[in-house]
Design brief:
By secondary structure, the chain is α+β, with helices and mostly antiparallel strands. It folds into 2 domains: 1-31, no CATH class; 34-72, no CATH class. Helix content is 31%, strand content 11%. The chain is built from 2 helices and 4 strands. The strands form 2 sheets. A two-stranded antiparallel sheet has the order 1-2. It has a two-stranded antiparallel ribbon with strand order 3-4. Helix 1 (36-49) packs antiparallel against helix 2 (54-61). The chain is globular and about 40 Å long. The two termini are 23 Å apart.
């Protein structure tokens, strides 16, 4: 979230939603409609592109299934 230039996502009424980043959630809608596994892979690739070691990229994305968006 620290790298999010907007600081957070936004709800449909324009208020901030601190559960999600602006890369994932804007104006009440999710921008990514794949599976949690797809999102983990996408994020890991982006982190590695920014110079993060593969292990840390995996570590930082392994708990995504626990986020409110992906809970079942």
């Amino acid at each position: 979230m620290k790298k999010d230039t907007e600081g957070s996502g936004r709800n449909a009424d324009g208020t901030r939603n601190y559960l999600y980043c602006s890369y994932c959630y804007q104006y009440g809608s999710f921008l990514f409609n794949g599976t949690v596994e797809d999102m983990q892979e996408f994020c890991q690739v982006k982190m590695k592109e920014q110079g993060m070691p593969k292990f840390l990229a995996w570590l930082f994305t392994r708990n995504m299934k626990r986020l409110e968006r992906w809970k079942q």
